[in-house]
Amino acid sequence: xxxxxxxxxxxxxxxxxxxxxxxxxxxxxxxxxxxxxxxxxxxxxxxxxxxxxxxxxxxxxxxxxxxxxxxxxxxxxxxxxxxxxxxxxxxxxxxxxxxxxxxxxxxxxxxxxxxxxxxxxxxxxxxxxxxxxxxxxxxxxxxxxxxxxxxxxxxxxxxxxxxxxxxxxxxxxxxxxxxxxxxxxxxxxxxxxxxxxxxxxxxxxxxxxxxxxxxxxxxxxxxxxxxxxxxxxxxxxxxxxxxxxxxxxxxxxxxxxxxxxxxxxxxxxxxxxxxxxxxxxxxxxxxxxxxxxxxxxxxxxxxxxxxxxxxxxxxxxxxxxxxxxxxxxxxxxxxxxxxxxxxxxxxxxxxxxxxxxxxxxxxxxxxxxxxxxxxxxxxxxxxxxxxxxxxxxxxxxxxxxxxxxxxxxxxxxxxxxxxxxxxxxxxxxxxxxxxxxxxxxxxxxxxxxxxxxxxxxxxxxxxxxxxxxxxxxxxxxxxxxxxxxxxxxxxxxxxxxxxxxx
Amino acid sequence: xxxxxxxxxxxxxxxxxxxxxxxxxxxxxxxxxxxxxxxxxxxxxxxxxxxxxxxxxxxxxxxxxxxxxxxxxxxxxxxxxxxxxxxxxxxxxxxxxxxxxxxxxxxxxxxxxxxxxxxxxxxxxxxxxxxxxxxxxxxxxxxxxxxxxxxxxxxxxxxxxxxxxxxxxxxxxxxxxxxxxxxxxxxxxxxxxxxxxxxxxxxxxxxxxxxxxxxxxxxxxxxxxxxxxxxxxxxxxxxxxxxxxxxxxxxxxxxxxxxxxxxxxxxxxxxxxxxxxxxxxxxxxxxxxxxxxxxxxxxxxxxxxxxxxxxxxxxxxxxxxxxxxxxxxxxxxxxxxx
Lengths: 502, 338
Hints:
A: alpha/beta, six-stranded mixed beta sheet, 18 helices, 26% strand, B: mainly alpha, 15 helices
């Protein structure tokens, strides 16, 4: 089955804001359309219209030239529209097959029983079609993130979806898994499915998509064939203005290293890591998911066990050993996942911002907090980092991803950190905020902070890092500096496909 | 999703605005419930609004008030303490026995506080440092404390307490006479004590750096830890506070009853303690709640029991209503989170 999707003049208003303003797009059978735009541009709203979650005030959806009414999620299912979400939902202890057919498990011979074998056979078939070797009988929780996503896609295919929407599917995948995902998308395309691929990564759009559509402030501001457009043109459409290239770096790196790690070990994960953090330097830590990059950070900060090695800190008084607790107190740590350990989602923005610097606001023996001062600081931080929020009293959960990430930064900036550790600082963040965060990192390094940057985005690494250490299987495999940091070298070193000679 | 929150703030209808204001100030609900109850009962229940009865209610707050304050600290930090009501008995019987033997009020009171605090410390160490599940830990210490109290007293009540002790703590001060009531009416010391404790500990929780850290720990332990909060110490301290509150309750109750027994706070009252705290805005997930809210939650429940008592309605009907109110409030909390 193949299908052509057409959305005509879709308009959706929320009180006060037009979320979608007469948006029309067409995706042919066998076409992959890249849908891009900053967070809040209307991508999610548009997709929620397709998913039957929002009813548009004007406009309609056509599939194969016939109008379809999408009033509820089950209507979208029946129309053959399937979503592959950024955050996967599944039952961890159930098997792959059970997860795939959770709402339509084949009945067994006795009433109220399930024919497990039939379910597994059908699951195996669907997975096989995608070229995957995942065992249908494996419990879901034993799968990697990438494999879980494959299961999700297989489920969509098994349910006969002709229109598949990928919502930032690659943001939590390793490089290898990303390649596997691309292969599957191409396979679906070859089968004549209409595909919408939402991503912040323009290189993915270039590589994978036939056409593109750019949303800004609820309007379709550009669309066409990917072959006829350059990356900088797309960026311009997304942000609405031309962007200047990265400023040439003329930072002063020098003096004794601020922090020296030697022989850091954690059983089974880290096998003797040596690293130096210099003043005013952005040190990149490059490696695949599971290489030990996040584990290294958590171990040295005392958040996870460390089984060996030593840490030496160098301040004005000379060098001395430093413990986990003191290091944690001297470090600003922007974690990989802001929702689980970066923010207090239910708390107001201002409380999030002041959480790391409460001592500054406490007075007297009772250590009473000066709330007015906390709020003032938060307001000035919101202005300084242009955090888009209705108020400093809004709950952090109500902000978009990019603005949430800026709140995490604001929380640490007040402390004027000597050491700044950034783990995937721009994950799930739109192009505009990404750029602002990059500039912020540069300015912090300029002011003398030692920055450790972990990122899966190779361009970001090349643009920001002064020096890159490649971590592979719990050891530092190689290092590269300045001009010699190139995308190809980093990729090769991380995957171990080439002798590390940088 | 930023857009969505912007409409919420700006173009919302008055009703919606009111709803958000209520959401932002969860202590309003118990205050409103209490005021509404007070008015309804004052109009419909004979003798409810008598000064004498009002002082009665005020004094009753002193019995569960301290435990509710302790529970609020524990729940805001993300835990729960099921043991406090049997810890009261364990503390009371030991302190009372010592008091009877030595005739020293001071020694008895210090012992009650110390034993309450020890149970809190055990709970705190198990939960904060040994990373055991609060529900299971405090369920166990609940049983331990109860068993200990029965074993220690051979299930007998402790009588013969020093008069000075009973007079000091169960007294009513500022006697005043009211036209409608033939007997003198005083303000119960227990009520005053719990009011003072609520003001002081409410201030600490809502205004000080320590209090903020309790909230942050409960809101997201991992984020708090990375932000530099010593989360284990905070968790530990909340259980210790709850233990001390159980010790104080032991003193107040022993004086009021004139005896220490193995079941000074009955098990159904554990439900009242948790209900008052949750109606007061606390969440079982932590990070929410306030002493102000909890005290009004407790006031609401106490008035309910009192009015039913005056009307001669079965206390079991009161239980049905209390349980229903608790479920309704939790339901409201779920709605509010959306």
